[in-house]
Design goal:
single chain; about 375 residues; alpha/beta; 12 strands; about 45% helix
Amino acid sequence: MRDVIRSLEEKVLAGGEVSVDEATQLLEGVGRDDLMDLLASADRIRRRFVGDEVHLCSIVNAKSGRCSEDCGFCAQSVKFKTGIDEYELLGEDKALAAAERAAENGAEALGLVAAWRGLEQGPTLDRVTTLIRKVSDGGKVHADASLGLIDDPEVARRLREAGLQTYNHNLETAASHFGTVCETHTREDRLRTISLVREAGMNVCSGGILGMGETPRQRAELAAELREVDPDMVPLNFLNPIEGTPAGADFEAMQPLDALKCIAVFRFMLPKHHLMVAGGREVVLGHLAPLMYLAGASAAMVGDYLTTGGTPASEDHAVIAEMGMTPRPQGACSESPRPMAVQRAAASTMGGANAPVAEGVAHDHA
C-alpha cells in the first residue's frame, strides 16, 4: 500500500488527478500500518499547493431552529425534537458582538448562518442585507453567510451588493447518497444555489459531512463532485450524532483514524483547495485533532458551532504554532471574487488545467 500512496502522491505533485477508483483504494486499503505514510504524503501536497498559512473563520447561529427541511443530521429541523434554543433573526447589536468575538479569536470572517429553507425577496432579505452591511462596515471581520437555498438571481445580487464575500452551501454528501439524508429538497436545488451565488460574483464555500452511513466510495464520489463544483473553500464536517435526529439514532461518531484518513484522501483529490476541518472535529478527532494539519487541512473553524460548543481559540492558535504553521493575517482577504479559481485559471495557461500553483501561494478565505 505504501507504494500506491507514494505513486499517487507523485501523480498529484506532477499535476495529475486522483480518480474515484484510486481514492476508494486509499480509503479502503490504508490501514494502521500505512496511515502515517498517507498523512505524510497529504502534508507534502498541502505544503506544495497551499502553503503553511491557516485560514480561520467563525460562525454565529443567526436564526435558530424551526427549519422546514428534514436534513437527517441537523438539530434545527422542525421535524425533530432536539431541545435546542429557538429564536428569530439576530438583531444588529448581537451580530456586531459576534463579529467582535470572531475578531478576538483571530478569525478573518464571521459566517451568518440561518435555519430556514432559503431566502426570497421581502422583509427578511432586507434584514439580512442590513446585518451583512453592519458586520462588513464594522471592519473587524468580513461577512460570510449560509442562508439556505436561493432560486432568484436578484437575491444573490442583493447579498453581494450588501458586501457578502462568501456564500456557504454544502453538497453534504455524494449524489448517490443524498436521498437518504434529505427528502425536502434535491441535490439540483443546491447546485442551482451555488451557480447563482457564483454568477453574482461571490466566493463559494462548499463541502460536506462524513459519517452519515456513506460508503468509502461515496466519500470519494463527494470529493470528485466537489472538484467539479470547484469551490473556494471546502469545509469537511464529521457527524456529531445529536439525540433526536435520525442520524443521531442511526450512526455513531467516526473513529479518529478513519477521519484523518478521509482528510488526507480529500487533500489528494483536492490538492489546490483549502480544506477546512469544521463541525464535529472535537467529538471525532479528540486529542488527535492537531494531526488534521498533517493530514492536509489548511483551515479551521474557531469558536463555537451552531448548536454545539467548539475548541477555545487559544488552543487552536497554540496548535497551529506548534505545527510550524501561521494563521493567515486578519484583513488579508482580497475583495476580488473567486481568487482560487483565478489562480487555477492562471496556472492552466502556464501548464495545463491541472498545473500546480506556486508553492506557498495564499488563496482567499472562504
